[in-house]
Write a structure and sequence with these properties.
Blueprint: H1 6-31, H2 37-58, H3 63-82, H4 94-109, H5 115-138, E1 142-144, E2 149-151, H6 152-171, H7 180-200, H8 206-222, H9 230-249, H10 255-271, H11 277-290, H12 308-327, H13 332-357, E3 362-363, E4 377-378, H14 380-394, H15 400-424, E5 427-429, E6 435-436, E7 443-445, H16 452-470
Antiparallel strand pairs: 1-2, 3-4, 5-6, 5-7
């Protein structure tokens, strides 16, 4: 292990002292009413995260910085969570807790690649702060994707400042090996993608999604074993964003679901190298089935367009497989991707058809009759529909042998979903004394935090892991 230079320790301690003094100074100004609270928070945001970006670029050894940030995370967590320091509008500042963890992760993953640390952290420091400041002062139109209110002008500001940040990095020599046309195209595409990630973030989680997604996109373009073509990435972002907007206008997806679907599609198609047709067919058939009349309402999202949580609960495992395939390419991962789609499609077909046309529905574990639409229930009609859903995806298999494997594992995943739903998902008593998945005051079984979305992602994950060992 290389010794840590004294100069590194000195630089880190100096910047650490600056951040601590700034936290005290600007918080004091806000308390005394001499500076708006939001503005003081965002100035501190720029100083704190910006210092991390600068220090990571000038020191030689990151070990001491990693250890110091890890130690600092303990009091940060204590003061934010238990002492309610840095609260804004009575909301805990979770972003202050999240960004040091992401920073440590980037330092650990890219110890010798300063660009992949400086670029995402600097973007988070500048663009996020600028978006909030402009949004608070000039916004007239707002939207809400996942919980926090965002503004149109704030999102536009985020993308513009991100683009300017990449231009500055390009002037200082980052992005070498690309022509300026390619680099500018990359800057626009990554800035828009980071803006979408920020728009989806709530409760401080944009401090995770923005740097992580930015770092991964930059890695895939500049450092991946098989670098992603910048123009193809831009084409994918443009095409899928346009398609997501159309689907949103058709009310098949919510606004958050449309943005999430576009990001999911780009990752699967360009980064993972997988065909989009299987997962598109799943979402299309599932959304159309959801529009059929006569469904028994099973939860608060019944008969509603799919939101971001539903998109990622059904496509999250496919997203992980795409990222893994980008880092460690393996043809077997595409088979696992098809199986994940088959599980999602099989379960959706079984649920949608069974809740509408099933005559008798039974709890899969207790084998007692339960109302249609309650998670964990199965019916003969729904059971047949699960095979139809799995067949739709199995048709993308490259051989008859793989067709049967995808069919069987996809159908098995639907059964796993029903078992998990019956065993773990919360069930309640409705106003008429019947059983329902819709939250009320009276829970009769399961855990409140286990929803249908949680069950979906776990059933797909379990089936894919099982398939990885079997196949």
């Amino acid at each position: 292990m290389e010794p840590i230079p004294v100069s590194d320790i000195f630089i880190i301690l100096v910047f650490g002292a600056v951040v601590l003094f700034s936290a005290y100074f600007f918080e004091k100004l806000a308390v005394l009413g001499k500076l708006e609270l939001i503005l003081s928070r965002k100035i501190l945001h720029i100083i704190g995260i910006g210092s991390c970006a600068i220090v990571s670029g000038v020191i030689q050894n990151h070990l001491f910085l990693i250890l110091l940030i890890a130690l600092a995370e303990i009091p940060i967590f204590y003061f934010v969570v238990y002492k309610d320091y840095f609260t804004t509008n009575h909301k805990k500042s979770w972003g202050i807790v999240y960004f040091p963890i992401v920073f440590i992760g980037l330092l650990w993953l890219f110890p010798n690649d300063r660009f992949l640390v400086i670029a995402p952290m600097g973007l988070l420091a500048l663009a996020d702060a600028a978006a909030t400041i402009f949004g608070e002062n000039f916004a007239r139109s707002f939207f809400n994707l996942t919980g926090d209110r965002k503004s149109i002008i704030g999102s536009i500001t985020f993308v513009i400042v991100s683009f300017i940040w990449f231009i500055i990095l390009g002037i200082f020599g980052y992005g070498q090996g690309q022509s300026w046309a390619e680099y500018l195209t990359m800057a626009i595409t990554v800035s828009v993608s980071a803006g979408a990630a920020e728009a989806l973030g709530s409760k401080g989680r944009d401090n995770i999604w923005v740097p992580v997604s930015t770092a991964f996109l930059l890695w895939s373009i500049f450092r991946a074993p098989v670098p992603v073509n910048t123009y193809l990435l831009t084409f994918a972002v443009t095409t899928l964003s346009s398609g997501a907007y159309v689907v949103y206008r058709l009310k098949l997806l919510t606004a958050s679901g449309a943005v999430s679907a576009a990001l999911l599609g780009v990752s699967i198609w360009i980064l993972g190298g997988f065909s989009l047709f299987p997962i598109l067919l799943f979402f299309a058939t599932g959304s159309l089935l959801g529009k059929l009349p006569g469904k028994a309402a099973s939860d608060l999202k019944s008969n509603e367009p799919r939101d971001s949580t539903q998109v990622f609960s059904n496509g999250g495992v496919a997203l992980i497989l795409a990222y893994v395939n980008c880092i460690w390419p393996n043809p077997k991962l595409e088979l696992l991707y098809l199986i994940s789609c088959a599980v999602a499609c099989s379960d959706t077909w079984g649920s949608e058809i069974g809740s509408r046309f099933g005559v008798n529905t039974y709890d899969i574990l207790r084998w007692k009759k339960i109302p249609k639409g309650v998670s964990g229930g199965v019916s003969p009609v729904g059971f047949v529909a699960t095979f139809v859903g799995a067949i739709i995806i199995a048709c993308f298999a490259s051989s008859i042998d793989l067709f049967y494997k995808i069919l069987l594992l996809g159908s098995l995943g639907s059964i796993v979903d029903s078992i998990l739903g019956a065993a773990l998902q919360a069930r309640y008593v409705d106003e008429n004394g019947g059983m329902t998945d819709m939250p009320t005051r009276h829970r009769i079984s399961g855990y409140r935090f286990i929803t249908n979305d949680v069950v979906n992602i776990f059933s797909i994950f379990i089936t894919v892991v099982l398939a990885a060992f079997i196949l």
